[in-house]
Amino acid sequence: MSKKLTPREKDYSKWYNELVIEANLAENSAVRGCMVIKPYGYSIWEKMQAELDSKFKETGHENAYFPLFVPKSLFEAEEKNAEGFAKECAVVTHYRLKTDPEDASKLIVDPDAKLEEELVVRPTSEAIIWNTYKGWIQSYRDLPILINQWANVVRWEMRTRLFLRTAEFLWQEGHTAHATKEEALAETEQMNNIYAEFAENFMAIPVIKGRKTDSERFAGAEETYCIEALMQDGKALQAGTSHFLGQNFAKAFDVKFASKEGDLKHVWATSWGVSTRLMGALIMTHSDDKGLVLPPKLAPVQVVIVPIYKGEEQLNQISEVANQLVKDLRAVGVSVKFDNRDTHKPGWKFAQYELQGVPVRLAIGPKDLEKGTVELARRDTLTKEFVERDSVVEKIQDLMVEIQDHLFGKAKAYRDNHITEVETFDEFKEVLKVKGGFISAHWDGTPETENKIKELTKATIRCIPFEGKKEEGKCVLTGEKSSQRVLFAKAY
Amino acid sequence: MSKKLTPREKDYSKWYNELVIEANLAENSAVRGCMVIKPYGYSIWEKMQAELDSKFKETGHENAYFPLFVPKSLFEAEEKNAEGFAKECAVVTHYRLKTDPEDASKLIVDPDAKLEEELVVRPTSEAIIWNTYKGWIQSYRDLPILINQWANVVRWEMRTRLFLRTAEFLWQEGHTAHATKEEALAETEQMNNIYAEFAENFMAIPVIKGRKTDSERFAGAEETYCIEALMQDGKALQAGTSHFLGQNFAKAFDVKFASKEGDLKHVWATSWGVSTRLMGALIMTHSDDKGLVLPPKLAPVQVVIVPIYKGEEQLNQISEVANQLVKDLRAVGVSVKFDNRDTHKPGWKFAQYELQGVPVRLAIGPKDLEKGTVELARRDTLTKEFVERDSVVEKIQDLMVEIQDHLFGKAKAYRDNHITEVETFDEFKEVLKVKGGFISAHWDGTPETENKIKELTKATIRCIPFEGKKEEGKCVLTGEKSSQRVLFAKAY
Fold first, then answer.
1. Is domain A12-90+119-286 in CATH 3.30.930.10, yes or no?
2. Which ranges of B332-419 would DSSP assign to H, the alpha helix?
3. For A482, which of A10, A442, B84, B252 could close a Cys bridge (C-beta 3.0–4.6 Å)?
4. What would the CATH number be for the domain defined by B12-286?
5. Second-level CATH architecture of A419-489
6. Which ipTM was obtained for this model?
7. Residue A99 CA to chain centroid, in angstroms?
8. Do B71 and A95 touch (CB under 8 A)?
9. B 136-175 residues with CB below 8 A of A?
């Protein structure tokens, strides 16, 4: 763990990859594009899950579980959805292996165990779920259905990166069914808002809410709302999406309900999800050249106590103070670890906890015992101070709030400073090259122009922001009329 | 929901299937052998997960996540494990679908997207995990590794039944690595004990702890410890297993560590798991002809309040009392639902909550308002009584404990009454036919005899109980010498 990370300035991408590995968050596996999420990374994901899950339940959603596999005939039922995901899906074709007749230590696929119908490993679950909802919905009394699922999904991406783009990832997917279009749209918006609140208040990641253009929309959706974040290298990251699916899936699976008035109508749908990709957003929003920086609300360990001692007697004296602190901090809901391992030196521990982003480190040595102090180090500012032992608990309670706010404020200042309004395509290219970030520009509303800009600059329209001011202008590429600025950026 | 269940006496298997569907626990899906776990069923599973997860964490385990897929070459590395699971595994062979050239509305497997190496959908994760641990373990300082994973697994079973045997199921699988055999054996036993405590204290299911015979052991294990429960129809159900894997996986994947003394040794391993099968055990231990019976510790809703009223004014008066009760019950940690829907009649609601196993039902009508009472019905005993409104909260707090104990006691009495010692094979067959349950009999210790008995009676050795008294005797089939009785039963 003495290895230093490549500085972000030098190679941001390399820094990211090294950090994920060195901080024990995740690693690549023997399966192409699939990751192992290590305990420390998974414990952060569990914190995210718990918070999101309670937000979902507060808004009336229940969890359920649907099959991993989607029979091909169901998969292809909603045409656009199928088209969007067919190109990169894992397909199960057989249900047995047998001993290789040429080498008894090997196994081969048993040709006699071919499935009648191939099964697609779910890349997303609309098809299997709407085929199920068909049996659940007869009347308006059966609506709304508000269900969420925590699951693994597989998309056979060609270029993968830990957390950001992996062949298998973990996510939650909400799938709701409604009697009216208005209700479904309200749900779509509500869930996008929940994602935004979660990102900002819990992960300390400022996001912009907006809707996607036709070409960036989820395959099978009528509208995709999203939250977009900005990473430290000036690239955007889509952190969550909420889709208004219209009646597309209800029509594909023939899901109708009898209204109060007695006539049969197709059901309206939404789906929404966030994934382990959020781990990538978390890392790239707050961390620095020394490693991960975690907002207190997400940190599996908020405070670590490291004893600095020579000999057992000193350790015993320090342990007495430390154990009392552990008790007092836990009593006020702060998670704390006393690392009294004798297998590692204090300097190694300091570096390790910096690498792993523990928000506050307390060090206690013989001098601290004399003076009744502890040394307190903040991970976010890398500052140190001595604190009276009696005021440590209160100080840390305050710090938990202060650090959370500070990280959000810092990320927001960076983000706000990286939204640049441009009027010409030269400016557009110049800003993209020199500064990065979001470019707020007029666009004529056509997919052709959107594509052309993507070809020329690799920047895509991240969203049409909900809070963008309505303003007449001219498209940055074609000079055609435009009534609102949209946000362009290079993106993960 | 007015449909009555087939009585257990008439057809136990049909009763079970109907109950799972009618109580909204789960249903079959469009995918052969895969189930949909519905919100009510899933909320019970979530309760189990939360309790188990905290027990795992209390004993030092952490959660992590490993890939869904196992490359064929890893899958076959541990020979016995591979042999055990190869016969029933889902195999991914391709990573893309394409439009059918003969019918543009259809998709076919793209022959150009064949994987170089087939991927097995994990039936269990020893192979992928031990291949990963290889990179994590160099020295004794890296041990022990105590990891658990919550995941879905797939075993291509030919005959499936909701919860009991499904092609895909949810489970947790613990995988630990240790420096010594003793430590690994202690872990194996500790986890089996945790399962037993969980089953008995949380699910109110009495279990017998023991070890499996060679032929019933997990493929790749040196020892399999288990907990065995008894269902109401006299058949046994394996409710959890904990495996001592010896050095089998460490050898298959070449995982060695440098000991304190500096020499290289193979690592010792355990794995242990329980699955959604526990839902089946829960149902078949406590439920009756009216539906599910839930122990309070597992019930998503512990108390339901049903108003009995004519007209809005009565409803308003009742609601006032009910809402106060809801508040008071929640304040003492009891989960409660006030079902004031006007779309369903009280009788329908009574039947529905009986079907879904809600432990306590309160009904409040106009007469109760006058008298200051509520009608309290217990699901487990199907008894009713009137309770003074002022003592309802205390009464219910007591009942939560009493019902939990009563269910365990009842199940234990049944189970204890269905362990029959036999001395002859005629007795063996007679007991199996007339009474069912566990048969405690001497066995000569050979797989041949075990197999012969299975062939003749369909009964298998469920376990060699840890607490069985050592006792000389003669094998029930062969008359050979035996030093301990083992437990036979027909099993799920």
1. yes
2. 346-355, 366-371, 392-417
3. A442
4. 3.30.930.10
5. 2-Layer Sandwich (3.30)
6. 0.97
7. 42
8. no
9. 141, 147, 151-152, 154, 156, 168, 170
